[in-house]
Amino acid sequence: MNINISSMIMIGLMIVSWVVGFYFLQGYYDTTLIIPSLNDYIWTTPFKGILGLTSIFTAVTLLLFFLQIKFKQFFHQKKYFYFTHISNHLLWIAVVSVQVKVILFNLGICH
User: Fold this and answer.
1) pTM (2 decimals)?
2) 81 Cβ contact list (under 8 Å, min separation 6)
3) Strand extents, DSSP E, 23-110
4) Is residue 106 one of the residues assigned to a domain?
5) Is residue 5 part of a domain?
6) pLDDT of residue 28
7) Which residues lie closer than 8 Å to 3 by C-beta, 6 or more apart?
8) Mutual orientation of helices 78-110 and 5-27 as an angle, nearest 10°?
9) Which of 38, 44, 103, 105 is deepest in the core (most CB within 10 A)?
Protein backbone atom coordinates (compact mmCIF):
# COMPACT_ATOMS: atom_id res chain seq x y z
CA MET A 1 0.00 0.00 0.00
CA ASN A 2 1.29 3.39 -0.98
CA ILE A 3 1.16 5.78 1.98
CA ASN A 4 1.58 9.42 1.02
CA ILE A 5 2.53 12.42 3.12
CA SER A 6 -1.09 13.50 3.56
CA SER A 7 -1.99 10.18 5.16
CA MET A 8 1.00 10.47 7.46
CA ILE A 9 -0.15 13.94 8.56
CA MET A 10 -3.62 12.55 9.35
CA ILE A 11 -2.15 9.71 11.39
CA GLY A 12 0.23 12.14 13.13
CA LEU A 13 -2.59 14.50 14.12
CA MET A 14 -4.64 11.56 15.36
CA ILE A 15 -1.74 10.34 17.51
CA VAL A 16 -1.13 13.86 18.84
CA SER A 17 -4.77 14.09 19.87
CA TRP A 18 -4.66 10.77 21.73
CA VAL A 19 -1.35 11.67 23.43
CA VAL A 20 -2.66 15.07 24.56
CA GLY A 21 -5.81 13.43 25.90
CA PHE A 22 -4.04 10.70 27.84
CA TYR A 23 -1.40 13.12 29.14
CA PHE A 24 -4.12 15.39 30.51
CA LEU A 25 -6.08 12.50 32.01
CA GLN A 26 -3.01 11.34 33.95
CA GLY A 27 -2.66 14.69 35.68
CA TYR A 28 -6.30 15.67 36.09
CA TYR A 29 -7.72 14.16 39.28
CA ASP A 30 -11.20 15.63 39.38
CA THR A 31 -14.51 13.83 38.94
CA THR A 32 -16.05 16.38 36.57
CA LEU A 33 -14.87 18.27 33.56
CA ILE A 34 -16.42 21.51 32.36
CA ILE A 35 -16.70 22.05 28.62
CA PRO A 36 -17.39 25.69 27.71
CA SER A 37 -19.90 26.12 24.90
CA LEU A 38 -21.35 29.29 23.39
CA ASN A 39 -24.09 29.99 25.93
CA ASP A 40 -23.69 27.35 28.59
CA TYR A 41 -21.31 24.93 30.24
CA ILE A 42 -21.44 21.17 29.81
CA TRP A 43 -20.50 19.04 32.83
CA THR A 44 -19.14 15.60 31.98
CA THR A 45 -16.59 12.99 33.02
CA PRO A 46 -12.95 13.71 32.14
CA PHE A 47 -12.69 10.72 29.80
CA LYS A 48 -15.75 11.68 27.76
CA GLY A 49 -14.81 15.34 27.75
CA ILE A 50 -11.27 14.87 26.51
CA LEU A 51 -11.24 11.62 24.54
CA GLY A 52 -14.89 11.38 23.42
CA LEU A 53 -14.44 13.61 20.39
CA THR A 54 -11.10 11.97 19.64
CA SER A 55 -12.58 8.47 19.60
CA ILE A 56 -15.45 9.51 17.32
CA PHE A 57 -13.16 11.15 14.79
CA THR A 58 -10.68 8.26 14.98
CA ALA A 59 -13.50 6.03 13.74
CA VAL A 60 -14.26 8.53 10.95
CA THR A 61 -10.59 8.67 9.94
CA LEU A 62 -10.27 4.88 9.89
CA LEU A 63 -13.44 4.68 7.80
CA LEU A 64 -11.90 7.19 5.39
CA PHE A 65 -8.77 5.05 5.11
CA PHE A 66 -10.77 1.91 4.38
CA LEU A 67 -12.91 3.73 1.82
CA GLN A 68 -9.78 5.13 0.23
CA ILE A 69 -8.36 1.63 -0.15
CA LYS A 70 -11.65 0.14 -1.35
CA PHE A 71 -12.50 2.85 -3.89
CA LYS A 72 -8.99 3.71 -5.02
CA GLN A 73 -10.04 5.01 -8.45
CA PHE A 74 -12.60 7.43 -7.01
CA PHE A 75 -10.29 8.88 -4.37
CA HIS A 76 -7.34 9.30 -6.70
CA GLN A 77 -9.18 11.92 -8.71
CA LYS A 78 -7.56 15.13 -7.58
CA LYS A 79 -10.64 17.05 -6.43
CA TYR A 80 -11.96 14.21 -4.25
CA PHE A 81 -8.53 13.39 -2.90
CA TYR A 82 -7.83 16.98 -1.91
CA PHE A 83 -11.32 17.50 -0.48
CA THR A 84 -11.22 14.41 1.74
CA HIS A 85 -7.67 14.92 2.96
CA ILE A 86 -7.86 18.66 3.56
CA SER A 87 -11.18 18.34 5.36
CA ASN A 88 -9.76 15.55 7.52
CA HIS A 89 -6.68 17.65 8.34
CA LEU A 90 -8.88 20.58 9.36
CA LEU A 91 -11.06 18.25 11.41
CA TRP A 92 -8.10 16.90 13.39
CA ILE A 93 -6.66 20.37 13.92
CA ALA A 94 -10.06 21.42 15.28
CA VAL A 95 -10.20 18.36 17.57
CA VAL A 96 -6.75 19.08 19.03
CA SER A 97 -7.58 22.77 19.50
CA VAL A 98 -10.88 21.94 21.26
CA GLN A 99 -9.01 19.53 23.54
CA VAL A 100 -6.44 22.17 24.43
CA LYS A 101 -9.20 24.76 25.01
CA VAL A 102 -11.07 22.45 27.39
CA ILE A 103 -7.86 21.51 29.18
CA LEU A 104 -6.77 25.12 29.67
CA PHE A 105 -10.25 26.16 30.77
CA ASN A 106 -10.39 23.45 33.43
CA LEU A 107 -6.85 24.06 34.65
CA GLY A 108 -7.71 27.75 35.02
CA ILE A 109 -10.77 26.97 37.12
CA CYS A 110 -9.22 24.29 39.27
CA HIS A 111 -5.87 25.87 40.00
Assistant:
1) 0.79
2) 75
3) 33-36, 41-44
4) yes
5) no
6) 74
7) none
8) 10
9) 103
Q: How many CA atoms lie within 13 A of 52 on its CB side?
A: 10
Q: For residue 90, which phi and psi values (nearest 5 degrees)?
A: -65, -35
Residue 53 near residue 93, CB atoms below 8 Å: no
Is there a contact between 92 and 17 (Cβ–Cβ < 8 Å)? yes
* Cα distances (Å, whole numbers) of residue 53 to 17, 45, 50, 84, 99: 10, 13, 7, 19, 9
- Burial class of residue 87, CB neighbours in 10 A (0-12, 13-18, 19+): exposed
68: containing domain: 17-110
Name the packing angle between helices 46-70 and 5-27 (round to 10°): 160
| b/e per residue 32-69 (b: at least 16 CB within 10 A) | ebebeeeeeeeeeebeebbbebbeebbeebeebbeebe
* pLDDT tens-digit profile, the chain (111 residues): 456 787 788 888 899 999 988 988 887 777 888 888 888 888 988 888 888 889 998 998 888 778 777 777 766 677 777 787 788 889 999 999 988 888 888 888 655
- Kindly state whether residue 7 falls inside one of the protein's structural domains: no
